[in-house]
Amino acid sequence: MSHTFPDLPYAYDALEPYIDAKTMEVHYSKHHRTYFDKFIAAIKGSELENTQLTEIFANISQHSPAIRNNGGGYYNHVLYWNCMSPNGGGAPSGDLNEAIINTFGSFDEFQQLFTDAAINTFGSGFAWLVVNNGELKIASTSNQDNPLMDVAGVQGEPILALDVWEHAYYISYQNRRPDYIEAWWNVVDWNTVSENYAAALAQGR
Ligand SMILES: [Fe+2]
After folding, report:
1. How far is the CA of 199 from the centre of ligand 1 (A)?
2. How far is the CA of 120 from the centre of ligand 1 (A)?
3. How far does the centroid of ligand 1 lie from the alpha carbon of residue 88, in Å?
4. Cα of 77 to ligand 1 centre, how many Å?
5. Binding site annotation covers 167?
6. So where does Mn(2+) get bound (predicted)?
7. What is the pLDDT of residues 94-142, one digit of tens each?
8. 27 labelled binding-site residue
9. Cα of 166 to ligand 1 centre, how many Å?
10. Three-state secondary structure readout of 34-92
């Protein structure tokens, strides 16, 4: 069995005051867990039990909505958790910082474009920073789709994920998605995002 449900990399209250403990508990132990369990149920007994998620997503148009929605929900949340840290915030350094400046003009400009993409994601979805042919791109997807899927408008290797489903922010921020996004920048773990960037380039993405 190649698919496992990972531990949350920090305590439920670790991201307070930006993201509250109750939101993290429900989001991880209920929402994420349910996506994982339903994904496992959807692939049970098929060869997908031993197929890498990236390979499943590359052919997602050939699979059922249950696999698309729950497989996406399983993967997307793992990246979202891993891109946050109680020691996060600030701006990246090194190669990622250089790439962001070369691509978007400045970190502030990037932050504004990413924020706009997240705010303007209609309904439920995710905003992404992806590597596509060695270039950085900002993307937004609906529901539990992601840029690894063959159905995505902007494709590439995701290195940063922001969940903009209401379940990610409703308890603290109600309908105020922009307030949640502004708070979220304070917990973005740029060390992890930089590692994801280096790994994507090393894989020739
Ligand atoms: Fe979520």
Report:
1. 24
2. 17
3. 19
4. 6
5. yes
6. 27, 77, 163, 167
7. 999 999 999 999 999 999 999 999 999 999 999 999 999 999 999 999 9
8. yes
9. 8
10. HHHHHHHHHHCCCHHHHCCHHHHHHCHHHCCHHHHHHHHHHHHHHHHHHCECCCCCCCC
Compute, in angstroms, the gap from residue 30 CA to the centroid of ligand 1: 10
Nearest by Cα to 138 from 162, 167, 165, 164 = 162
Domain map (residue ranges) of the chain: 19-204
- At the top level of CATH, the class of 19-204 is alpha beta
State the pLDDT confidence band at 10, using cuts at 50, 70 and 90.
very high
pLDDT at 1: 52
Rounded to an integer, what distance in angstroms lies between the CA atom of residue 101 and that of residue 131? Answer: 15
- Count of beta carbons in the 10 Å neighbourhood of residue 48: 20
Closest CA to 154 of 188, 185, 195, 113: 113
